[in-house]
Amino acid sequence: MQVQRQPKRIVIIGGGITGLAAAHRLLELTKSDQPLEVLLLEGSSRVGGVLKTTERDGFLIEAGADSFISDKPEAIALAHRLGISSRLIETNENHRRSFIVRKGRLRPVPDGFQLLAPTRFWPFVTTDIFSWPGKARMALDLIIPKRAANGDDDESLAEFVRRRLGREAFERMAQPMIGGIYTADPEKLSLRATLPRFLDMEKNHGSVIRAMWKQRRNTTLVSGAMGKKSSSAETGVSGPRYSLFLSFDRGMQVLVDELSARVQDQIRLNTRAESLSLSECGTTWNIRLTDRTSIEADFVCLAIPAYAAAALLQETDAELSHLLNQIEYASTATINLAYRRVDIPHALDGFGFVVPFIESRSILACTFSSVKFAGRAPEEHVLLRAFLGGALQPHLFELGEDEMLRRVREDLRDLLGLVKPPLFSVVQKWRRSMPQYHVGHLDLVSRIRARAQTLPGLHLAGNSYGGAGVPDCIRSGEAAAEKALAPNQ
Ligand SMILES: Cc1cc2nc3c(=O)[nH]c(=O)nc-3n(C[C@H](O)[C@H](O)[C@H](O)COP(=O)(O)OP(=O)(O)OC[C@H]3O[C@@H](n4cnc5c(N)ncnc54)[C@H](O)[C@@H]3O)c2cc1C
User: Which of 112, 205, 266, 423 is 20 to 30 Å from the Cα of 382, by its Cα?
Assistant: First the structure.
């Protein structure tokens, strides 16, 4: 008599890009004779998490992420496997530059300036973003001895930049450029967890500027197109080489829609997990839902923020829950504004601008969305997108939408000469959405992983641990799927 094998049940909690990528990878890898049941539980009424594109009056509005970086291969590789790579779009090649606010005016970021330091001499020397003493101080990076190795080489972004390149480089460039990406407090942001290559540059070359020059020379020799293109070898995908940032013709929603179509039979919307407990035999999980029902699982992937995972695990493992709660989050709002082109005096000849904290403005940054990517606004119209809140201005996130809008318009009036009201605006608040990788983050994540390892059939995935960008989340979700199918799980 043949014994019927019980299907292994894998439950993914959280239907953002991480959870979707995990569910999709599971279906991709499952062999037809493998008894497997996959469920994706999403607490809200839609999948995608902080990826959300809507359309209104011919404008394409990104409420969350508007693009992803192409030098991490996972998103491009996934687009290829999903058959949507023809829908990938590059940034507009005419205006690949950005601005930074200095003394209330937009100044172009000097050509060749890479987040912290210059790679080209003349654009750096001639920019008026830095004073002469500030430039001289930055140049001292070439001779300042490297920090003595002390075992723990993590350091905050602020400390590192002030130490190597000086206060001006930090306040006028590094804080808005890098702090802005993570909406973080740079005094706390771990360089090791976010941009380890800068620490390595100091370690290996004794100077950030010298390392960047060398890198630029080598890249120029190899590709002739410094920093603009990622090679197929880097992306692991053969075919076209792309600009540094990519999106899809109809926005990031294309990726979400395609993934959710592939895994639609697995998705359960409006299904929020409340707690997790191990069965008495210690090999299966009981997931209690907020509607008082529960689901059994052999393997659980938590594709939710660390604090949400902490809440679920509180009763099962208070120590793990405590560790997870130590990862802090910042809240950010995006404000999309639609305009007629004639109403904006500024040339909009770039992808947008960032605002240093010392400028005392409300907005953190503003993307000229319809300049950055094609198809974001109808002819003769413009779509702008401002960011508000973050770790340095949490009180602004708590404002009502009208007051947020008033402040954004005030800043856009001063910086772009924009007096007319927008045709319409869309405010989206993302509470506790950006994990803050503070100094010591990597160590904390190792402790979390070690502790989670003691719980059989549990995996933590998502933006809280090893990268918050869309490709990082896809990598993390897919790794969870591979682990779930490993023979010893
Ligand atoms: C404003 C903003 C702009 C960004 N811009 C970019 C960008 O341009 N490029 C880039 O690469 N990255 C960007 N990021 C980062 C990136 O978008 C995110 O890190 C990533 O999308 C997070 O995906 P996730 O699936 O891990 O988490 P989330 O998107 O947060 O999804 C988690 C999901 O889990 C659900 N959930 C939570 N708790 C439970 C529960 N108990 N039960 C069931 N479901 C639950 C939530 O409802 C949610 O749908 C941006 C982030 C923000 C906030």
Answer: 112
